[in-house]
Design goal:
Helix content: 25-40%
Oligomer: single chain
């Protein structure tokens, strides 16, 4: 028997739901079930209409709030989500070309993913956002930033370099210039600690430190360490993937609710894995009519070459065989991908494979965590990279035994080219299908996008890709992720705070040291 008649608060309009209560009582649906379970599942269980059950849920919550005196205190003291949508607030990339592709930057209130292979510039992109969030609108939110790392610690050395060399940041007065003191950081080495931080410490830190940007770098690291293990039992592997999918759905719902409730921009980095394109379909076999015509043509040519004819001196004419009673089988249909299959559809939501040329299908990637995680995102930004090779320069020498010794591979990677591509987003149009988006470089002063005019100028001027104006070295000679993450790690003096206790320690900065970011524990 249900507890509805005993738990319903006084003054609850039960007569409005008299047609629902008997069925709920018969199927042992408790008040806790109504308040916590999904209305669709509960309606199916109790065999009642879904809209009516949702109306009962809303009425029950309202009555309980009124009984506890929470009705007035629950009035929002901040603008609602609908009001926030009327005011554009976004975090800039501090580059006009990249901002133009993003329609102004990454807006608050959305869950956005930055994905790309190792060395594509994901961490450099995120570090720029951490500083830009502190700027006043329209380039920032005038708020602090929170960096949650699952792998390496925050790259404070690189942040200091950006503050000193970026033309927009270095020219600001001290009162409005971004600071490392307004960047909070914490490491989550496993899934259990990550879930605890996101559920309990993150809302407290956002409210206490006026956080406007939350960065998670990267979202796939802990899941890969936890679930991508060799499973000898196939059933155990399937169960592990089911648990991972459920956890990803919970994580996505949690991050989206944080973005909407607090009006912050939530940006996560994601890794990629290789994707292999399907082999091209085999050519259809020749039809029976074509085979017969080729045979007749060959026989006629053989007869003409012998000079004889059907006489005694010439070759005999082929004796026609009896006609077959069965028709020739039709040629097989050419293989084509199913329109609704994942292999076909993922070309438009992964960021790789939407080009029509087959040459572009040789280095396909797929963002980690699969389709389940993709459905949790509001936007996906893909960072692509491609090598630029030097001209072939084989060099042949003589080895100690006198044989020829080929030194080198003939070609070598001279530099890397990088692009930013909008895969999907609700506030701006996606990049053109088949295009790579906006090309950019990673320099000491940050991300530098390149427009069509810049690309044409480089094509006429030769290389120029490894040096910036004035001979500034590219910070990306960091071709791999290790050099891209160069400088990661905390410095000597850190301000440590506890999100729940609010304890601070005194920084022990030495003269000349850059101030460290705050570390959340």
């Amino acid at each position: 028997m249900s507890d509805l008649h005993h738990v319903l608060p006084e003054g609850f309009p039960a007569h409005h739901f008299a047609h629902l209560l008997p069925s709920l009582d018969r199927h042992r649906v408790t008040t806790t079930d109504i308040l916590t379970l999904d209305a669709a599942d509960l309606a199916k269980r109790a065999q009642v209409p879904v809209p009516e059950l949702r109306r009962l849920q809303r009425a029950l919550v309202t009555a309980l709030h009124a009984q506890l005196g929470l009705a007035e205190s629950l009035e929002p003291d901040r603008p609602t989500a609908g009001w926030r949508a009327t005011e554009w607030r976004a975090v800039s990339t501090l580059d006009e070309h990249l901002d133009a592709e993003l329609a102004g930057g990454l807006p608050a209130g959305y869950l956005t993913e930055i994905t790309g292979e190792s060395g594509a510039g994901k961490t450099q992109f995120l570090l720029t956002l951490l500083l830009a969030a502190q700027l006043p609108p329209p380039h920032g939110l005038s708020k602090s930033a929170l960096y949650i790392s699952t792998e390496a610690p925050l790259a404070t050395t690189r942040l200091t370099q950006l503050l000193q060399q970026h033309p927009r940041l270095s020219s600001l007065p001290a009162s409005t210039k971004p600071s490392l003191q307004r960047i909070l950081s914490i490491q989550t080495p496993d899934l259990e600690y990550q879930d605890h931080v996101l559920r309990y410490q993150l809302p407290v830190a956002i409210a206490r430190h006026d956080v406007g940007l939350v960065v998670l770098d990267s979202v796939a690291a802990n899941y890969r360490a936890e679930f991508e293990r060799p499973e000898h039992d196939r059933r155990a592997g399937v169960e592990a993937m089911a648990r991972r999918s459920a956890m990803l759905v919970e994580l996505g719902a949690l991050l989206r609710s944080v973005a909407r409730a607090h009006g912050v921009a939530v940006v996560v980095a994601n890794q990629v894995s290789d994707r292999f394109a399907a082999p091209p379909p085999p050519p259809p076999p020749p039809s029976a009519s074509a085979t017969t015509s080729r045979t007749a043509s060959h026989n006629s040519q053989s007869g003409g070459a012998g000079g004889g004819g059907p006489g005694p001196g010439g070759p005999r004419a082929p004796t026609p065989g009896p006609p077959s009673s069965q028709p020739a089988p039709p040629p097989p249909l050419a293989l084509s991908p199913e329109p609704l299959s994942l292999d076909h559809q993922q070309r438009w939501f992964t960021g790789w494979g939407d080009a029509r040329t087959t040459a572009a299908a040789t280095a396909l990637k797929t963002p980690a965590l699969g389709l389940v995680w993709t459905n949790q995102l509001a936007a996906r930004i893909a960072l692509l990279k491609a090598p630029v090779y030097s001209a072939p320069n084989p060099w042949v020498g003589l080895a100690a035994d006198g044989r020829e010794d080929w030194r080198g591979d003939g070609v070598e990677i001279r530099r890397w080219r990088r692009w930013m591509k909008v895969v999907f987003a609700p506030w701006t149009a996606a990049s053109e299908p088949g295009s790579k988006g906006v090309e950019f470089k990673i320099l000491g002063r940050g991300l530098v996008g390149r427009g069509p005019a810049d690309g044409a100028a480089e094509g006429k001027g030769g290389d120029g890709g490894d040096k910036a104006e004035g001979g500034e070295n590219i910070a990306s000679a960091m071709g791999d992720e290790g050099r891209e993450e160069e400088g990661k790690g905390a410095g000597t003096g850190q301000q440590v705070f506890e999100a729940e206790g609010g304890k601070h320690s005194t920084p022990d900065e030495e003269p000349g040291d850059a101030p460290d970011s705050q570390t959340m524990e």
